[in-house]
Amino acid sequence: MLYRNCAGGVVFFREQVLLLKNEKGEWVLPKGIVPEGENSREVALARVRREAGVQARVLGIAGKTEYEFYSVTRKKPVCNQVLWYLMEADENHCAPNPREDFTDGGFYDKDDALTRVSYTQDRTILAESYRHIAALREEM
Predict the structure, then answer these.
(1) How many domains, the chain?
(2) Fewer CB within 10 Å: C terminus or N terminus of the chain?
(3) What are phi and psi of 94, to 5 degrees?
(4) DSSP labels, 29-89
(5) Predicted TM-score of the model (pTM)
(6) What is the CATH classification number for the domain harbouring 71?
(7) Eight-class DSSP state of 98
(8) Spatial separation of the C-alpha atoms in residues 11 and 21, rounded to whole Å
(9) Strands 56-71 and 76-89, how do they pair?
(10) Which DSSP helix (H) or strand (E) runs through 112?
């Protein structure tokens, strides 16, 4: 099995969260592979910019997920281990990047986002991130 370290962002604008729709019709959070020697935080911020056109800043760690799939091109199973960063954007402008295979996206209210998101692990990290960001805002 091929193990890959990835990083992504759970990006909030006020009470809304960023979701992207990929070419398979799946609603996902922005993420990508962390190349050897690169910083996961910087990779996560860069993926949010490249995939969604969103400028964000990191507030903390949102959590970790892991998922496996069979890679037809590599002809072997792959395990992606994702470190998620809790992020905040100053505006709700989103421009899904078709060169990254995204067809739609934007910032969505909690109930809508939790309903849209395609994968259970993403839904869990999203729900936890809502609690985490609410706690951070209470501290301010």
Answers:
(1) 1
(2) C
(3) -135, 135
(4) --EEE--TT--HHHHHHHHHHHHH---EEEEEEEEEEEEEEEETTTTEEEEEEEEEEEEEE
(5) 0.92
(6) 3.90.79.10
(7) G
(8) 15
(9) antiparallel
(10) helix 110-116
